[in-house]
C-alpha cells in the first residue's frame, strides 16, 4: 500500500516540477508512514515540510498544491492536511479489499518484491570451527543467517549461501592430536590427556572408529609421544599452550604426513558430516561449503599477501610479515606470516574475502558472533589496502544465546565438552520453537533462551500462538464440511464490502502491512520484524475468531469471511516459511 501512495505523491511532485513550482533537479525522498491514530487517516507523508524551503512556500500551502496534483485513485478516499504540513491519506474500503485478493491470487508470492532484482548477494553464516558439534550458541547464527537469506530472496536478490570451513590452522591440529591421543589410550598406551585438548565424548567416538578401522597402525609409545614436550599447566607451573603445540609437533613427526592426515581427516570429516546433517535437519542448507585449505592450494593467500606488499601495506620484521593495519586506524599492525613461515588465520581471512569479491557479488554479508566485533574494521582495512571496496562487505554481529533450563543458566565450553548441542536443543523444544525463538530479537541484542516457555502450549509461547492461529483457520474448513456448507470463493470476493465489523477492518489493514514488513526486514536484515508481525496478525485473528461466527447463514457474509481468513492463512504460511517454521493444520 505504501508503494502505491508513494507513486501517487511522486507523480504529483513531477507535475509540480513541470509547472515550475519545484526544482526539476531535486529527487525528493518520499516517506510514507502509518498514521499513529486512525482519526488521522491510514497513512501520512511529510514531503511538503521537506520541500517547503526549496519551493519558497509555507508547508501547508505546498501540501495543498501536492494534494491538488495527486492523480485520481480508487485506493484513496480522501486526503487532509494536518499540523504543520502533514498530508494524511484515508484509504478506501476497496484498497484493503484488493490486499485480500492479492494474497489469494499471489499465494506463496504474496509479500515478495523485486527491489533486489539483478543483484547478487553472498551470505556466509555459522562457519563454526569443525572442532566439535554445533552448540545452542551456533544455532542462533544459523537461524538468523538462514532467515536473512530467505528475506533477501523474497526481496528479489539472487542469494548464495555459504559455509566457510576453517579446516586449516592450529585449532584443527589440536583436534587431530586430541583424536590421536584418545586412540593411543584405546591401544593401551598410558596417556595423560592435555588440559588444552578437546575433551568431549565425541573425541572418544572418533578415536574408537579410528581404532576399529586401523587397529594399532598409528600406535607409538607414550614416552616418544611426550618426548621433549613442555610441561602442561598444573600446580608446578607449566604452559598448556606450549604443551599442546609440542604434542602436535611430535604427532606430525611420529606419524608422518600420510598417517597424520588420516588421523586429521577422521576428526574433520566426522565433525563436518555431523554439522551438515544437524543444519539440514534444522532447515538450514548451503550452496557451497568453502574449504579454507582451498585458499592455500589455489594461491589465494599468497596473492592477497602480494597485493598488500605491492601496495606498500606489508613489511618484514624479525622474520615475520606484517600488515600495516595501524595505517587504517587499527591499534597495532597484524601478522600475516609468522617467523616460522606459517600463515596466520588473518591472512587466509583476507584471501577469503578477496576471493568473495572476485566472484562478482554486489555485496557480501558475514554473520559472525558478537565476540568478533573488533575483527570487523581489521578485515575492512585489509580489503581497502588491497584495492577492493570495503563497503561491499556487511558484517552482522549475533549475540550468542544463553540457555536457561528450570530457571538456571547452562554453562557451555567446547574444549571441556560441557555444552548443550543444537541437536539436543532441537530434540527438546523442536525445530519450530528453536527457529522462531532465535529470531525474535535483533541480532545484536542479548538473548536468554527459555526452554520452559519454548515447550509450553500456551498463548505466552509466541510460536505456538502464531501456529495455533493457522490451525484455527484450518479448523473452520473442517467445521464447514461438518455443517454441510460449501465455500464459494468468487462470491466471497464479490462480497468483501459486507465485511464492516471493526475486527474485519483491522485484519485487512494488518494484511496490507505484510509486503512492506517483508521489504523492511530484508533491507535492514531484521527477521524479528516478521516474528513481531506474525504475532500481531495472529492476535487479530484470535480476537476475530472469538468475537464473531464465520459460518453464518447469510451466504455472502459467510463466503466473504472465509475469503478473509483464507488470506490470513496464506499470509501466516508465507511469514512462517520465511522464518523456517511450519504451519500446522491442527494442534
Describe this structure in words.
- The longest helix is centred in the middle third of the chain and has 42 residues, at 240-281.
- Strands 7-6-5-11-12 form a 5-stranded parallel beta sheet.
- The protein has 4 domains: 2-91, Gyrase A, domain 2 (2-Layer Sandwich), CATH 3.30.1360; 107-115 and 458-579, Orthogonal Bundle (Isoleucyl-tRNA Synthetase, Domain 1); 120-165 and 286-398, HUPs (Rossmann fold); 170-281, no CATH class.
- The model has no long low-confidence stretch (mean pLDDT 93).
- It contains 21 helices and 15 strands.
- A hairpin with a 2-residue loop joins strand 8 (314-317) and strand 9.
- It is flat and about 90 Å long.
- It has 587 residues and is of the alpha/beta class.
- Helix 4 packs across helix 21, helix 6 packs across helix 9 (240-281) and helix 17 (462-483) runs antiparallel to helix 21 (555-579).
- 40% of the residues are buried.
